[in-house]
Specification:
Strand order of the largest sheet: 1-4-5-6-7-10-11-12
CATH superfamily of the largest domain: Aldolase class I
Number of helices: 14
Strand content: 5-15%
Bound molecules: iron/sulfur cluster
Largest sheet: 8 strands, mixed
Structural class: alpha/beta
Shape: globular
Distance between the termini: 18 Å
Helix content: 40-55%
CATH class of the largest domain: Alpha Beta
CATH architecture of the largest domain: Alpha-Beta Barrel
Order of helices and strands: EEEHEHEHHEHHEEEHEHHEEHHHHH
Number of domains: 2
Number of strands: 12
């Protein structure tokens, strides 16, 4: 059911902010060029006047009362606001919502790198607790191909500054981002994994969140997929890349897989303690036959989209009764049309948000 709120709300927030109060500090994305991102492509970036944001906070307080413990500042890069303006907004938010214990926002690494540690400390003192930054990859050639507008050096600088300021840092990584490209004459997936590990090791963010590349209409990358310039990696290739990434991580971060685009949602934990366990799940998956991997993926997609039968974790795949039910669906589909399972998996993938 659509609820009309008496204040403005933007289109997206991280999965971890599902229960948060959403306050729109700016509209859309000031960069808006990333090849893999459809979110703001048809709309222009706008800064909002501080008094409008303050008025929205007042309206949200009158509408909801003090019932939120967490708040998220939208849209794609609130840090582009002048630091004193953002301090004013966050301070007002904390005043009107005294129960809010955590205030977070998305930010671009380039923008964060331009702030001083002192400015970031001011934001932290005002109440900004965490920044979600899309690292996507640490491999410069891939960042350039995807028009991310950031280099690995800038990402490291931004990440280290955030950590020094006391603000908690979440870096996002896109698994499979390089597809089957060969940039600089090398297999991109391998460089993507190794270079991303290098950046993560240099920063040691509090959280590493992974999501897997899905390509939909509205993304510039979609055109490259249609023309054949870009080819998506298969599930097993992406999982092998994830293995290489994790093997090379030397961090104390929490590794989070909370996005249904990921093949293995149960590969998560605290590093370094859970590293071997995480790798053991990956290796167990890689030992499956192609047919079993397809069966598993169909079951996890059914789960993500609310259909039954389904699997959430790899352990559930090894439950004979669960597997039998997914297998029965596949047998029925294949009897009608050979190859229809793979087509369905492709289609369901594009339905994930
Ligand atoms: S990924 Fe982020 S920075 Fe890139 S276009 Fe999308 S919202 Fe903007």
């Amino acid at each position: 059911m659509m609820v009309f709120l008496p204040y403005e709300v933007g289109p997206i927030r991280p999965p971890s902010e599902a229960g948060s109060l959403l306050i729109r500090a700016t509209r859309n994305c000031p960069w808006n060029k990333c090849e893999f991102c459809p979110t703001y492509k048809q709309v222009r970036f706008e800064k909002r006047p501080v008094e409008d944001i303050i008025r929205d906070i007042d309206r949200a307080a009158a509408y909801h009362g003090d019932r939120f413990q967490t708040a998220f500042l939208q849209d794609a890069n609130s840090l582009i606001m002048k630091t004193p303006d953002l301090v004013k907004v966050i301070s007002h938010l904390k005043e009107k919502f005294p129960s809010v214990r955590r205030v977070t926002s998305y930010a671009r690494a380039r923008t964060v790198a331009r702030k001083t540690v002192e400015e970031l400390k001011q934001l932290h003192e005002a109440g900004l607790s965490r920044l979600h930054i899309g690292l996507e990859s640490g491999y410069d050639a891939l960042l350039e191909y995807m028009k991310k507008g950031v280099t690995s050096e800038l990402a490291i600088e931004a990440g280290q500054k955030v950590k020094q300021s006391g603000i908690s840092l979440c870096f996002y990584v896109i698994l499979g981002l390089g597809g089957r490209l060969r940039l600089e004459g090398e297999e991109t997936w391998r460089k993507h994994a190794l270079e991303t590990a290098r950046v993560l090791n240099a920063v040691d963010p509090d959280y590493i969140r992974v999501r897997t590349l899905t390509i939909k209409e509205g993304m510039p990358l979609y055109e490259k997929l249609l023309s054949g310039e870009f080819e998506k990696a298969g599930d097993a290739e992406v999982v092998r890349e994830e293995e290489l990434l994790i093997e090379n991580l030397e961090v104390t971060s929490r590794f989070v897989s909370d996005h249904s685009t990921n093949v293995l949602m149960d590969v998560r934990g605290k590093l370094p303690e859970d590293k071997e366990h995480m790798l053991s799940i990956i290796r167990r998956y890689l030992e499956l036959s192609e047919e079993e991997q397809l069966n598993f993926r169909l079951g996890t997609l059914f789960r993500a989209l609310g259909y039954a039968p389904n699997y959430l974790t790899l352990n559930e795949f090894f439950d004979p009764s669960k597997r039998q039910r997914v297998t029965a669906v596949i047998e029925e589909m294949e009897a009608k049309e050979a190859g229809s399972t793979r087509k369905l998996v492709e289609r369901l993938n594009t339905m994930l948000i």
